[in-house]
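Extended Data, panel c. Modelled sequence:
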Amino acid sequence: MNANVRIRQQTSKAAEERVAAYDWDGLGTDLDAYGCAVLEKLISPEECESIAGLYLHEEHFRSHIIMARHGFGKGEYRYFKYPLPDLIGGLRTALYPHLATVANAWSERMGNDQRYPATHRDYLELCHEAGQTRPTPLLLQYREGDFNCLHQDLYGDLAFPIQVAVLLSEPGRDFTGGEFVLTEQRPRMQSRAEVVPLRQGDAVAFAVHNRPVQGTKGNYRVSLRHGVSRIRSGHRHTVGIIFHDAR
């Protein structure tokens, strides 16, 4: 076994232990109730700075998106290429099984046939069989005046219904403004907004597209979008962990 493989295995095990330490019953309850849940201090300040520092090194990425060119808002982001950085890949693998449990329960409640495999490797195999082979984890960078329009990250026929975003910058020190925003549209009702306060290293898991809500006559489907409010000052970096691959 070469040194790189051994380091990846150690990182993966550390990520599994880190993720397993959370109260997943409580996080699942929050996802059911609000469409989002916060994992406090998922990564350390040193890890945040290390990941954010990758942004200027193009060899880690497959593409670079200037958001204003596409009407996505203002700001920019880069999609990582395979192999992912060890920490990002390890967290993606470790988070998936816990979120797949929630995703499968949601599918059943919404009457969907879609079921998600127990491991991320098996889910990626399904993506690749469907022609979705490009990695989707991304690193976002915002400056003063930038923002991210409300949107859904859907890249093909297969789309995992929960995503995770990790704030790499410290609010009040590195930037002001730039709150994570989630909106929910219920049938025949006004939209509901959820503003999620995060500190450096905190992660938010959230519904990407649809989720079930229990009503008086059973479960019904609501549609969600997410975005980032205007950056008032400074710089903000975020890493997005998306579990399906893209076409």
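The chain has one domain: 3-241. This feature is highlighted in the accompanying rendering.
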